[in-house]
Amino acid sequence: MAIYVVMEPPGRSESVDTTFVRDGFAWLGFLLPPLWLAWHRLWVEAALAFVAMGLLSILGERVGLETTGSLLSLLVMLFVGLEGQGLRIAALRRRGWHEWGVIEADRLDDADIRYVVEADADSNAQAPAQRIVPDAAHARPAQMGLALGLNHIPGKP
User: Fold this and answer.
1) Chain centre to alpha carbon of residue 47
2) With contact defined as beta carbons under 8 Å apart, do 18 and 8 qualify?
3) For the chain, which terminus, N or C, has the lower number of CB atoms within 10 Å?
């Protein structure tokens, strides 16, 4: 089963267009890093990948180690393959999108159906669930007590 991260745009309304980002290795991002990044509108990342791969290839050719330059370009390809989906999520967050949650499904269609069902159940909930972790604004400061070891106790020399 695949894991999809559900991203919702800012200004949520009834006709919301969500984006499902599949968490995992991006094979097209590995094979064609600059094109894959540009396809997902990661323009700066695409330009950086293109420049990095070009510089590494040129550097390997100038030094006389063509294989080393190609292997270093392969590292850029591997990075985009491994971290490409994370780059997409980070770009959406920079644009104001927020993460709704994570859905586990076999296909994108199944993930979409599960999202609609769970979002509908969330909107029908009467009262928000009690938080397990209390809000930090209501927390009391920690009491410093005696402890064994090299602990600093404020006010004691």
Assistant:
1) 20
2) yes
3) C
Let me know: does 87 contact 37? Beta carbons within 8 Å.
yes
* CA 7, chain centre distance (Å): 10
Question: Helix crossing, 66-94 with 43-63: angle to 10°?
Answer: 170
Q: Which two tokens stand for residue 4?
A: 């999809």
> What does residue 125 show for φ and ψ, rounded to 5 degrees?
-65, 135
pLDDT digits (tens, 9 = 90+) for 40-71: 999 999 999 999 998 988 888 888 877 888 88
The pTM of this model reads 0.70
5: tokens are 């991260």
Measured distance CA(112)–CA(110) in Å, rounded: 5
The single-letter code of the amino acid at 106 is: D
